[in-house]
Batch of 4 targets.
Target 1
Amino acid sequence: MFATLFLSLVLGIWLIVGAFAYQAWKRRRRPARHRRWWVLAVSTGTVGYVHTLAYGMALTRPAEVCGQQTLDDDYPLTHVRVDVFPPRLACYWTNSATYGPSHPTAPGTWLLWCGAALLVAGTVAWALALSSRTPRWARAGTVLAPAAAATIWAMGVAPLMRLSAVDLDNECFRWQVAHLHSAPAGEIVHTERGFLPPAVDCVFTDGTASLISVETLGLSWCLTVFLICCAALRLLKAPMPLPGPKPR
């Protein structure tokens, strides 16, 4: 508990010092908007990553970090889940089914996502500021579509891909309970995973269900938008202005 408070205090001080340094740099250099956002993205992401890994814990001793929050074994720790990217530690207690798991590294994870969002925003601003005859929406789409696809993969697909067979069976059981009226009612036979196309399927005795059907649809839309924007960059170009009459 004291380690968590200390790291949170250090994080707050680091952010305050960084804010003053950013303001001084901004007033002195007067950089372009996309450069300002890139600097904020790198700084925020670095602080979030360092804060997460400072526990030592997400990658080395996660059970000890989660065990620090146990008081008199009122709610014993059942298992721990570690995600490498984005780095996140989740502690599952006996009451997590009701109140959800605990995330000691949540502040660092949120800072990482804020840094990623600023990086994408800065890249879009840079693409829109380019001197080009191609449509602005196409330039923005070539950045936003891959960014949205990466977010969908990191949030919805990759965590399921990394689960063990037992944990994936548990996810299938939870999905079956949540979709009681539309899910297959039989027992779980096995699970299937694939990367191209991405698939995480639960095979029951009386049917098959996909855990990432919504994510797969989102990835398909992102790919479609990206291809349309690339085609627009190739085909749609504003006509060059005609030269005016030469002065006599």
Target 2
Amino acid sequence: MLADVAYWLTQDEYTGVLHTSRRAAGVIVAAAVLSDRVEAGAVVVQRSRVVVLHSTPGTPAGSDVRVGADGGRRARVAVPDVVDGLGREVLAQVVREPGMLPGDVIAGLGVDVRSQVARRLVVAGRAQRRRSWCRRREWVAVARDHDVRPAWTSTGLVVKVARGEPLGAGERFLVQVVASSSLGELAFAGLNRDRLARALGPVDTAWQELLTATVGQLRDMALAR
């Protein structure tokens, strides 16, 4: 999932030390989590809000998120089967706070979403947990002892950009986000500039408002320093 790729890009894969500020890392991973939901057809990001797609009569049943109340009745949102536990939690959070601007949703999710992604990686056996005396309550996932190459590189995103291979809509979105942050120089260091420029081409329409909101959050944080 794109959220996992984003997670590894934001930190050293063996020590867990962040490559950027904790807030910026949270925003990048939160944006990737929402991107996964867009890819799954579970949300639509508009300029003024993030819309969770509700079920309609005849819609195949997926996993349901039941939150909030409307006239005493629980609101039900049909979630595609490909959305995992973290995805359902994110959708539930968005439904609980309707009408929020996309940037606010990203900022809100960014507070603890990295810890949630880390927990998922560890539980799935794709990483191990690193404990830190100063971050005891936060899950930090790092590469397993027997991993012989950087965990985030194994996702292939940077390799695909380096080789000029076609990118999926979500991958192109993440490349744009990373390039707009302080991570860009680190993640894409030494890459052919023409190939990187091609990878930075226009994103799919479904991702445009999410990209605008994410870049806005990163820019605001940079200006606030």
Target 3
Amino acid sequence: MTHNAQWYRDAMNELEKQLTDADRSWFSELREYTTLGAFMRDETTVTRQQHGMMLDLVAAERDGGDAERFFGKEPKEMADDLLKQLPPASWRDKGQLLGLIVGISWLVMLISGGMTNGAMSINVLTYLAVPVLNAVMIFGVLTLMRAQIYPVVRLIKSRIAGFFVIWAVMFLYVGANLATVRLMPAVLVIAIPFGWDIALVGVATIFACALILRLHDRLFTPMAFMALVIGVITILRLLWQQLHFVSKQGFTAVVLGVLAVALVIFTIWSRQAAKHVEK
């Protein structure tokens, strides 16, 4: 019977508890290498292959064997052999990934008020260009990771180096998107009237938070918090532009303070979630 990729991952997490420490470490490396190297491969096939190998390893341990004697000393070599046998991802999976990139790009822009400083507006060219830029960046980064798979795994395992790499990628992503928004000519711009802009940002924020929380994944939950914070700040900014309930300096100070506190909470929350998942 064929199951989906998540079923195989859950099954492997349970089987892993039966392995010795040495074999658990060996197979953990194999899973890391094949998971990174299998980008744009059929995910279900990848996890099914891993699951079958883990079943074989559990059986081998019962007969007194271990991973090195059964599969070889280097999990990297086994990963290379496994990756050569994997079929490419289906066009449906590729389309779903591209759709996800487009949807996330649009949600981010809507939550941030169209990424405009003044009244909210939608630049049609920007909403077309940003998803393309994000797709190129994501595919580029993952392709680079796949080409340099073993150094990348070692880098990720280093908590300090991995932390700085992740933040560097995030700054690159945000900077590239902001540059695209700022440099895009205002040719096809749709102005959003006051009231409708607040409703649009509110709906986009609620929708984004609901999608993230629906994943039931501790690693993604902090992102729902940041989406909520950014959405609330955007709504307050749109209200301030109409009502001017505080001075500009006071409003800017409050926004920067809230963002600073939110980033600290997000960082701590993310690290705690990562530690929990690692355990």
Target 4
Amino acid sequence: MIFWKYLAFLLVHLHFSGPEKHYKFPIAEFSAHVKTAEWLIEYDSAAWRLSDTVTHADMDLLQRTGKEWFVYKGRDSMWYGAYGKFQDTAYDLAIHYCINRQDSIELVTTPPDTAMMCSVSRGIRKAYRNAGVMLGRSYVRMNKFIRLNGDRSISIWLLPALQPAEVAMYGGEFHYRFDEKGEQLLERQEYYRGGFKGFRLNNGRDVKLEYEDVKSPTLGAVYFALRYRNRFREIRIETLESHSLLVFNQVRGYYWEHKERK
């Protein structure tokens, strides 16, 4: 419950200072990125809890889990973890957990939506394949985020995970939206400029994310700032036209400052 209280605190205290009247910072786009990033952080928290529980499962069940495992938020607003393998035409579900309304993890005993799991698995494979065309050979570990949209389409984000030695990475981000069968690509948003950059987590350190080839902060930049907001002292995003600084003080909590780049 600590996570949810802290998220509520952030939402209440997240303010936008500026921009000055003559500078048209894209606040609507930025606010949309903040909303999506907050959802991704909620997803990440659920994925960590569910996956930690899975590590205690029997070895034969773990061996039936492949790269197509995923977490999703059901229509009942509860988080679920599906751990298994996709065999082209069927999903072999080994373990199925959920975080119930009492905020504890329980085994799901109701029949799974196998059609949905096959669709998501197809999307996961296609997402990694598309991102791999840009990334080439990369040793940066990526996290996947799955959202089942209201129109039955499937959104998949790929963002850098926390790397070994507690190194937080940025510089590559991928979003793909597929149809309800996970076959047709409906939308794609990609950012990668040939390499990743990163910082070892340090509460006393100020960090600067360099995005000087884009006009405004990307979703990945906003996610990095919110995800690691309490692991660095200040996080600044520098783009072609602006500086966006996420800072904290005891009076205002976390808030953003946006300034035009001179």
